[in-house]
Amino acid sequence: MIKSSTRSDIIRWQQMWDFILSISILCTLSKTVAAWQVDLAPTTLIHRVEPDSEHRFLGNTTVPDYFKILLSDGDSLIIGARNAVHNISLTSLRENRKIVWHSSAMDKHSCGSKSKSLEECQNFIRVLVKKNDNELIVCGTNAYKPKCRTYRTSGESSYEQVGPEESGVAKCPYDPKHNNTAIYTDGKLYTGTVVDFTAREPLVFSAPLRTEQHDSQVLNDPDFVSSYDYGENVYFFFRETAVEHINCGKARYSRVARVCKNDRGGGSFLRPDSFTSFFKTRLNCSIPGEFPFFFDEIQSTSEPGLGGYKASLNYNERTDMIYAVFSTPQNSITGSAVCAFKFSDIIDSFNGQFKEQASPMSNWLPVDLADTPSPHPAKCVNDSKLISDRTLNFIRRHTLMDKAVPAYGGGPLLLQTSFVSRFTQIAIDWQVPAASEDNLNKVKYYDVMFVGTDDGKVLKVINVGDKEIKPVIIEEIQVFDSKTTIVNLKVYRKPSEGIEKLVIVAEDEIKTIPLHRCHLRKTCGECVALRDPYCSWTENRCENSMEHAQNVVTGKHPACGTSEPPIVVEEDNILPTHIPRQPANVDPTIPNHIDAVPPVGGPLTGASQSAPCSKQYSVAEMAAATVVCIVLSIVIGFFIGYRASLWRNKRSNDPPTYAMDKCLGTPKMQNRYNTDPQLNSETQHYFSPEVQKQLNVVLNLTPKTQNLPNGGVESKVHKVKKVYL
């Protein structure tokens, strides 16, 4: 039995412990807050791009198109859509050619019999590769019965089909919501998709080879993001459920896998139709520390290029690399990050140790190099048919590498934690020259990142740090409305005509905007404070130049005077208009937009900052105010809890009293723990016989027909044994 005073002491100690723990957490966060880039705010908020500087493309105005960039071919951009392929000009966004491909009535009927809606039973074009200069391979979902066709350019404005339709199984997904990737290189089509209607069998495929079937150690519920040809390998980027973490709970990791382009399968009965060179490793995008915080789910990648995560004075210091967008799980803290990876680090990981699980109950551990066959199984060989059975057995059981690929620079280049939006896409303008802040005769080169979000925004970002990562958000541009997800981004340049554009693709609209807006800055201070590598102050105007007054690192320059210019905010225009669509019989699950909460204020949400009577607070001030409020709330809560526990302890020691129930006319015992027999016997006269019959849980009712008339009952009140848990 635990006394009331003892319980109240325990409650007070627990409250004291909660208070101490909360203070410890706040102190820990104060030490790590810099790693989360909490003071990061855009230099410019643009609510609407100048109408004269943007172009726009709309396909079907009655039903959603579900656009997806499938190929960039010179000055043309080829878009997969609903029952169509659009070839549009990157210069004007006008349509050059179009392929219309509807599913047959029979295929639609078959799709409907599988409990699919009318909107799902369309032909969504999801694979398009260039076979040669004049031919395209096009694959669509075709009402959940994938098909492929070959088209040839005909004249200047049309395509014509070449040959019959072919099965698109293992080349194109059944469902347009399924993520897939495809690339055509060295005369072969490589795809990452699913091979069945239920999407339970994923694979990497290049006829006649595929990854091992029904093996979770090879592919475990993957979502493919992209694929690229690099050197003698084809690389696949995807996220999947991690088999090495399954003993500790379910988690999804980001991966990069590769296969050799000259792989022909095994020569014996082992893996004759399977890749002998499929291996994968983890991509590490995390905030470093004793206990790193991981952004585990890759969402998109840029195209590979030559660049660097930090600015350099030497153009030859570039390296082959790729940028990628990562996020936390949907049911976790809402966070997004941008990480960069060098291809040399990816190659080093595949040349290292393998990871294995000796038994189903064992941990995943690295394989000793002495137990690894020679030559290294992950290296491409001239003829895979000559690989020994011992090596093939090793390959079958070891597809995962031990060493994860580290982020270039040691951590994320850009972070965002927000309840409003997540990063979705990224495009890079590689090595943009800018005037050096320390010597006007030198030029520094920056990788300019354009990051799309699921609330219709594009962030323009560079890293100005030298020894550490210091991102600068140059612009935050509201391209679409806040409920529109950006699904593709692409940088387009045509130097001969002075064209520099960013192509932004939503599921039913495409726009192009300039890469910079230097001419909007009217003073030297505003031009330099923009910290844009494209812009510099020259000849009394701000223009696209890499000479004269500029300082991307600090945003200040002696030529502009000593006064610090204010943050530039563009908010004199309304949000861009968006043509509403009213599709008929549309299933809202195909594909879904992510509804974002409208902006509610703060420097990152695009809220108005021009109210004359409202004071603007910095992020640091708001953070300090939040911490003070939390501490005060904890102290007040502790005091109230302490007083309540004293009151409760006093009440528990008071003698029992009784009150009449106004509804039943019966007393209610206020101290239900008292079991005094005398007290219980004294209270029997308060209860009527009808009420006594209802209290059979407490009363022992024994019929005494021989002593009481009319079969009356004798009431006896017994003690109730108390049980404390």
From TrEMBL:
Residues 37-515 form the Sema domain. It is found in: Membrane. SMART domains: PSI, Sema. Keywords: Disulfide bond, Glycoprotein, Membrane, Transmembrane, Transmembrane helix. The chain crosses the membrane at residues 622-642. It holds the Pfam family PSI. It comes from the Eukaryota. Its main location: membrane. The keyword Glycoprotein applies. One of its GO terms (cellular component) is plasma membrane. PANTHER family: SEMAPHORIN, SEMAPHORIN-1A. This is Sema domain-containing protein. It comes from Owenia fusiformis. The lineage of its organism: Eukaryota, Metazoa, Spiralia, Lophotrochozoa, Annelida.
